[in-house]
Design brief:
The chain is built from three helices and ten strands, in the order H-H-H-E-E-E-E-E-E-E-E-E-E. By secondary structure, it is of the alpha+beta class. It has a domain of 112 residues: Immunoglobulin-like. It starts with a helix and ends in a 9-residue tail after the last strand.
Length: 201
């Protein structure tokens, strides 16, 4: 009967087309949804990284990683000192010991009350010394670096400058020790000085 022919007109050909359309939709690449990063997360990451990045930067700086075009001068021998003219050598009955790490170092003692420079001790990298100092309470400042340029510009681009947080007391005939090897378990707490050290007169 003729009615059956109309039914075949929407038969296999139609289903093939529909099926191809379905497969195409299924195989299309759909763009991935990207979750927006909360700006606060970036700040949290940055704040967490700062305690790691700053010490790493300063370690690289004092180790001489940054280019320095200025001619290098011979660094004083370990145990060399620069002393304020007002200091009587006979009064130096205490001692300070300094152990240097991988950088040359100048350890300075300033009178806590007057902030007057009393003595500076020079120590070559990876060496240690012990020198006499007058009894007193001192603010300790530490200058480290790679190439020596003298007591005006210090170590040039490699200069790092810190102050020991707690004043150090030297009573008569006592000894104090400073070890500059950085360690999480260390007890020598320092604050960073962003200004350059003042030249020694």
């Amino acid at each position: 009967m003729g009615g059956g022919g109309n039914g075949s007109g929407v038969g296999p050909g139609w289903f093939d087309t529909a099926n191809r359309r379905f497969e195409y939709q299924k195989d299309r690449r759909r763009p991935k949804r990207h979750d927006r990063t909360n700006p606060a997360q970036k700040w949290i990451f940055l704040l967490c990284a700062i305690p790691i990045l700053i010490p790493a930067y300063r370690e690289a700086k004092r180790s001489g990683w940054f280019h320095d075009r200025v001619a290098e001068l011979p660094f004083p021998a370990s145990g060399t000192v620069t002393v304020n003219n007002s200091v009587d050598p006979k009064s130096a009955t205490s001692k300070i010991g300094v152990t240097a790490a991988d950088a040359n170092v100048v350890v300075q003692l300033f009178d806590r009350k007057t902030d007057v420079h009393v003595i500076s001790v020079y120590v070559n990298r990876n060496e240690d010394v012990s020198v006499p100092v007058p009894p007193g309470t001192y603010r300790i400042k530490i200058i480290e670096g790679d190439k020596w340029h003298g007591p005006t510009t210090w170590f040039g681009t490699s200069t790092t400058y810190e102050t020991v947080v707690r004043p150090m007391v030297f009573s008569r005939r006592t000894s104090r020790m400073i070890d500059l090897h950085r360690s999480p378990a260390g007890n020598l707490h320092t604050s960073i000085n962003f200004a350059n050290p003042k030249p020694l007169n």
